[in-house]
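Lab notebook page, bench 4
Experiment: in silico fold of construct C2
Operator: M.H.
Input chain length: 189 residues
Purpose: comparison with the prior construct
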Amino acid sequence: MSYVVDTATPIGHGDGMRLQLAIDVADLAEAIDFYGRLFGTAPDKVEDGYANWALTDPPLKFVVFERPDAPAGGINHLGLEVESADEVVATEERLRGAGLMTTGIDETMCCFAEKVETWVTDPNGHRWEVYVKTADHPTARENVVLTHRSTTAGMNAEDAATTNASSTSMADTGSLAGEGAAPSGRCCS
């Protein structure tokens, strides 16, 4: 079996890129206590049912979502936090060019932040978010799409190239279901 990988435009060559790992926990206070001791620092942000650590060594955004009914040890989603919206756009274009289905580019409020993001799902169902945080938000835990910036979401490059102005994508119709999508329009489900 051979693999073809486009190395012309890899992710993460800026100083500010870091991996994101978001997990579901049954008890937020217990998780904050454990991970605070594990990382040797308090979380950078704590909100109702949510906490995150923005670690620099190693560069990791570690997020916990309180979900008492979630299976123990579950990964909520994975992500790559980049430095700019331009990097999100370039990554989404590269993913589509590699034949992967994305959600397109959306401006959202999610996880107590405003973001520009795209999503892709691996063959085993692991959801990956590529995003840049543009501002904090005091109340938005669940994903709210503010603006769809892409009209070729949910398409690979070949399909996107043949799309005309009268057609719609998953993002244009408001549906984020399907391969690559954050289920039910929620980043943190």
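Observations: Residues 155-186 have pLDDT under 50 and may be disordered. The CA atoms of residues 58 and 131 lie 19 Å apart.
Next step: discuss at group meeting.
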